[in-house]
């Protein structure tokens, strides 16, 4: 049995960058196939251009995504998942499935907590 590694600052930094608000969406979309920037914007309509650019740069720096210049007229840029990024697909799918399966329980827990906090705060 493999021992669980200690979570260091370096681990936390990587997890923060891979699991941040937009990176998870980008990785999920690119696991389905390559997309151009505007294709990603359409696939994730609530992301701003600035946030998407920052997420793509972080993921490219970490080796999860590659930026490929496509020789067309006009020249276009396409983003693709790398083999390293592809290793996250099952984990991302599991997280999204867990969220869908457990969201009702989480919402009930939040409501109970909020109700109890309101009562305690009113005393």
In the CATH classification, which architecture of the domain at 9-87 applies?
A: Orthogonal Bundle
Could you report the average pLDDT, rounded to the nearest whole number?
A: 92
Work out the strand percent.
5-15%
Instruction: Calculate Rg over CA atoms.
Output: 19 Å
Biggest beta-sheet profile: 3 strands, antiparallel
Overall shape: extended
CATH class of the domain at 9-87: Mainly Alpha
Low-confidence stretches: none
CATH superfamily of the domain at 9-87: Winged helix-like DNA-binding domain superfamily/Winged helix DNA-binding domain
Task: Write down how many β-strands occur, each being a DSSP E stretch of 2 or more residues.
Answer: 3
Q: How many separate helices?
A: 6
């Amino acid at each position: 049995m493999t021992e669980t590694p200690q979570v260091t600052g370096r681990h936390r930094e990587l997890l923060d960058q891979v699991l941040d608000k937009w990176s998870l969406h980008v990785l999920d979309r690119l696991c389905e196939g390559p997309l151009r920037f505007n294709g990603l914007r359409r696939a994730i309509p609530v992301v701003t251009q600035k946030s998407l650019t920052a997420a793509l740069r972080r993921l490219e720096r970490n080796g999860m995504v590659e930026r490929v210049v496509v020789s067309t007229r006009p020249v276009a840029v396409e983003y693709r998942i790398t083999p390293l990024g592809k290793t996250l697909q099952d984990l991302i799918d599991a997280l999204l499935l867990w969220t869908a399966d457990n969201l009702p329980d989480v919402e009930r827990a939040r409501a109970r907590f909020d109700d109890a906090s309101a009562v305690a705060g009113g005393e």
